[in-house]
Design a protein that fits this description.
160 residues; alpha/beta; 3-stranded antiparallel beta sheet; 3-stranded mixed beta sheet; 9 strands; 23% helix; elongated
Amino acid sequence: MALNEHHYAINVFWTGNRGAGTSGYRSYGRDHSVTAVGLPTLLGSADRTFHGDRERWNPELLLVTALSQCHMLSYLHVAVLNGVVITKYEDTATGTMVLNPDGSGQFSSVTLHPRIAVADPATAELALSLHAEANRKCFIARSVNFPVHHDPALAAPTQD
């Protein structure tokens, strides 16, 4: 394996066969499990709109989650490189998916709403500006074909 190449492996197991398989659109469940070596099992389904279980993760939520996590990790790295000490980071990310007349669909955008706190108020402006660099470094954001917007703001400092 090349040093600049990384591989990821997961297993998806469909658990929604209600006895008749896919004999009809409403005859099967969308439930499934996702596993990876050494990690807890993730219970998945389709979005409720597509006959899924609202108590399980769906691919759309996982895509928005992956973008939010990747941005956070990239942002924290960029903060270190720029000498900005972040003491709090929270995000309430939102995504928009558009359905096409043929039943297909795609995401049209995702917006991240990171709220950060900095140890030194003098670095607040720099801290906010670093989201653009983090977006350029985020592996997942670089891999999608729709815009990933950012609406960063300062949060109240953490209390010790």
